[in-house]
Specification:
alpha+beta, BirA Bifunctional Protein, domain 2, SH3 type barrels, five-stranded antiparallel sheet
Length: 281
């Protein structure tokens, strides 16, 4: 019997417990390491992918000094276990290249479901894969290509207090953390432990990834249906800040087969593959 996973949010990640729980026969996860500090877990795993690292490699960092977000943004996490930052290496050979845009959305589904189950927060998604709770951003996800591999990085604010979080940029949502959400709740429950939360996210990732790759597409696997259920963007009035500075306004009407957001504007459905979405009131 493997030992129980540690739960205090302020403790270091239980590397031995995670390995015992996740690196089991038949598991998607093949290697798991926890480092005290690195610049970016995504950058580290992208280099490992190009060097031939196996699918299912997981790298978590107690402190990430030069993490990256979408649109080239930087994201650093302070020490003292205020965040859960990790990356996974996947090689979805069974999925045609045109369908692999669903992988970041799949990661969003996995993170939102794990946060609901392990941390009891009402987590929803903002396209493509920002995780929101209480109207604020709780977690972010970045997927990057490395040869035939895709590295998915996830950062979740766990024990951070308001003063630890980045300032709110123009048009951006405020940030939040499990600690802030717990303190605001009626029972003031402690935030979920980072080790148990990491195990929960990896469990959901493995389940949905295997369903998706076995079925071959988002519809047959049920991924599209689950994403639409989790996504607060669909049906909302939105403004999309597109790369290059253009702006598109309309109603988020759906997701196309490539995972692109469909925005209805002037009677036309416009597919959006990249951009910052702002939910309008």
């Amino acid at each position: 019997m493997s030992k129980p996973l540690s739960t205090p949010s302020s403790s270091r990640l239980d590397e031995a417990g995670l390995r015992a729980a996740l690196l089991t026969p038949g598991s998607l996860w093949t290697a798991l390491d926890v480092v005290a500090q690195t610049g970016s877990t995504n950058a580290d795993l992208m280099a490992a992918a190009l060097a031939g690292a196996a699918e299912g490699t997981v790298l978590a960092a107690e402190h990430q000094a030069a993490g990256r977000g979408r649109q080239g943004r930087t994201w650093a996490t302070p020490p003292a276990a205020s965040a859960l930052t990790f990356s996974v290496l996947l090689r979805p050979a069974a999925i045609p290249p045109a369908g692999r845009g669903w992988l970041p959305l799949l990661a969003g589904v996995a993170a939102a479901r794990a946060l609901r189950a392990a941390a009891a927060v009402d987590a929803v998604l903002k396209w493509p894969n920002d995780v929101l709770a209480g109207g604020a951003k709780l977690a972010g996800i970045l997927a990057e290509q490395a040869g035939d591999a895709i590295v998915v990085g996830i950062g979740i604010n766990v024990g951070a207090q308001a003063e630890d979080l980045p300032p709110r940029g123009p048009g951006a949502l405020p940030a939040t953390s499990l600690a802030i959400l717990s303190a605001a709740g009626p029972d003031s429950a402690p935030p979920a432990g980072r080790t148990a939360l990491l195990a929960a996210v990896l469990g959901e990732l493995a389940r949905w990834y295997r369903r998706w790759t076995a079925a071959g597409d988002a519809d047959a696997s049920g991924l599209r249906e689950e994403y639409l259920r989790c996504c607060a963007t669909i049906g909302a009035r939105v403004a999309v800040e597109l790369p290059g500075g253009a702006r598109l306004s309309g109603t988020a009407a759906g997701i196309d087969p490539a995972g692109r957001l469909l925005v209805e504007t002037a009677g036309e459905l416009v597919p959006v593959s990249a951009g910052d979405v702002i939910h309008l009131r």
